[in-house]
Structure formats: C-alpha cells, structure tokens
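Replying to the earlier thread about multi-chain prediction with a worked example.

Input:
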Amino acid sequence: MTFDPTLLAPYLPDLAAGARLTALACALALAGGLALGVIVALLRASAAPLTRRLADIYVDIFRNVPFIVQLFFLFYGLPELGIELNAFSTGVLALSLAGGAFTSDVIRSGILAIDPGVIEAAQVSGLSRRVIYQKIVLPIALRTSVRPLGSVFVNLILTSSILSAITLNELTGAAKIVAADTFAPFEVYALLLVAYVTLTYLVSLTAGALHRRLNRERALGAN
Amino acid sequence: MRYTDFTVHDILLLLQGAGVSVALFAATTAIGLMIGLTWAVLRYYRTPVLAPFFAAMAELLKNSPVLVQLFLVFFGLPVLLETDITPVQAAVITLSGNTAAFIYVIAVSAIESIGREQLETARVFGLSRWQILRKVVAPQAAAFGLGPLTGLLVNQLQVTSLISVIGVLDLTKVGAILNLRTLKPFIVWTVVGLLYYLMAKLIATTCARLETRLRAHSQWKGL
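Result:
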C-alpha cells in the first residue's frame, strides 16, 4: 500500500486547465439554465393551459431521465439533424437544459411564495401585467430563491463531471488522463474528490452570503 | 457487415439492461438504507468520534460527483489495496455509500422534526432512549422522511446510469452499444429514456401510496 501525492505535482497545470473548463461550462450553463428556468417558471405559473402543460412536460422529462442519457441523446442525435456542435457546446447545452428544469422548480416555488396581497396591491395601483412581473414578481422570487439556486448550481457542478463521458477534458476528464499517465489512480481521484468538495463548498458559502445580503431588510422584520 | 436495424430483439436487450439497473438500484438502496440509518442512530445516541466521523463522511459523499467516487473505488482502491475489484462490486460499494450519505441526511432531519416535548414526556414516563427511538421517534420520522426519500430514490435510480461508464451492462450501457451498432441515436436514446422515465414514475407512485398508509395513523379521525 503506497500513497504518494507528490507524484501529482507536475500534472497540476493540466488539472488546473480542466478546472477552468469545468468552471466555464458551469458558469455558461448557470446563465443558460437560469434564463430557461425563469421562462419556464413563468410559463408554468401562467394562466394559458397549453403553454403551462408543455412547460410541465419539459420539467417532468428532464427530471426523470438520467443526465447521461440526455447527454448522449444530444451528442449522438444532434449531428443526425445536421446540427454539428463540438463536445463543449453540447455539454453546455445539455447542462443548461437539465439545469433549466431544476431552476424552474425553484423559481416557481419562489413565485408561489409571494404574498398575493403584494400582487393585488400592484394591480389596484394600475400596473400592467408586464410591469408587475418585471418589477415585482421576478425580483422577489429571485431574491428569495438564492439559497436553493445555490444548491442547484452545486448539483450542476457535480453533474458536469459526466461531460467527461463525451470526450470533454474538463476536471474529471483531465484527471482521467493524469491517472493513466501516472499509474496513481487513487491519489488522482482522491485529490479530485477534495477539489470538487472545495469547489461546491465555496459555491454554497457564496450563495449563503448573497442570500443574507439580498434579504437583509426582510431578516430585520421590516417587511 | 453490420446489422443496423433496430428490432424487437433489441428491446429485449434493453429490458435485460433495465433488469441489471433495477437489481443494482434495489440492492444498493437496501444496503444504503441500512448504513445510513445506522449512522443516524449513532448520531441519535451522540456516540463520540463515530458520529462526527460519519457526519463528515456523509458531507464528503454528498458534495462530490458520483462519477469521481466510482473512479476512486474502481480504479483507485485496487491499486491502493493491491486487489482486484469487478465493475459490479465497485458499483455496489459506490452507490451504497452514496445512497447512505443522503439517507443519513434525511433520517437526521426526520428525527429532528419530532418535538422536544414529546421526547421529554416519554423520558418522564420512564422510557429508555432505545424505547423512545422505537416507539415514539421511528414511526413519526418514517412518515416524515418518506417524502424526501421518494425524491432521493428517483434520483438514485438515475445515478445508477453512471455505472455504465465503468462497464457494467446496465440500461445505459446496452443503449450505448445499440447506439454504436444501429447508428440510430434518436430511437435508441428515446427508448432508453422512456424506460428510465417509467421506472422513475413507478418508484414515485409506490412511495406516494406508502406515504398515505404511514400517515394514516396520525390523521385526525374526530372524537
């Protein structure tokens, strides 16, 4: 039994490059997932039955089918349709689609948690539906959803490791190469585990701080 | 020459793969449930050293990608311990540990959901700590924990798809093989996705039915 982490020192730049790719993919997917999630949440909260139904079906499918299956569907299926994307774009697309389903759930519960009195007050004040959504519903819903959105983002980071299955050399993919090069798989994957735990811990810390900052006056009970 | 049609026989192959997925899901859920509940009971008894150790362990397993845990067990452990490990063994170890971590979290919050006054009352009546756990805490905690458990089980079924990456012939792996042979990604991945979807729905409805039964005793029946 040998355990020698110093073996990995020369490979740290490779792993750092992988980590950068993971961070980039997750940041893009967060933006994509958030945009999609807001739209879908609004559709699900809307009164139009058809769009609401479609939005529900989208969330239902993406929540109940494994991510790797969604990923393979896009990676192998899109070229059939003549859409040629590289592994990175396919990965970001898949992460955004899956992230959108989870984000929409969070934002929808944020919308449903808004005191109906606030919206009635806005309606009585003669604000249009668009303004009510833009200036009242979304800001409140997003502000109260920061912490759950943080855990959606943590999940996104963990899920992004699966992108290594479509030949993308993000953090996990890079580690696979290092493990094959050094013949020290235990050291490599133990380090990788610690790296992901640290990364997700930082994200939840940031989400917690942001949550406290954005909800300061509510915490004081001013309301 | 390769046979590129997608035939009825391929559906049978996929169902075989689904059988492997279900078997591993059932086995690892059972093992994970036992381990996770043991950790929670250790915490309930405030066992020194062991309780904080497993709490940290659960945190580590919860916040790192299952794929990395799988690689650590499948590629890392054999080198560290100088033994052989089959893909199925690696899958069972990893998925059981991962499920245990999430079960632990659910069990702890379910136990904590029970009011202090109930525990104090039970103690005043002279019940031992074990009797309190058996007769007061467990029945209520089980009903409370079943909701989050349903979500967890649906999620863990999807997580089993990752073991295809280390070569276990589960539903996803059979899908990948058929995908390469038939070159019909849309059909193959749609059927695979549909099978996972149906299994997830089956788990969700079974748990919902169980929850109604467990909650029945605590329902207000009138005087």
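The first helix of chain A runs from residue 12 to 45.

Feel free to reuse this layout for your own posts.
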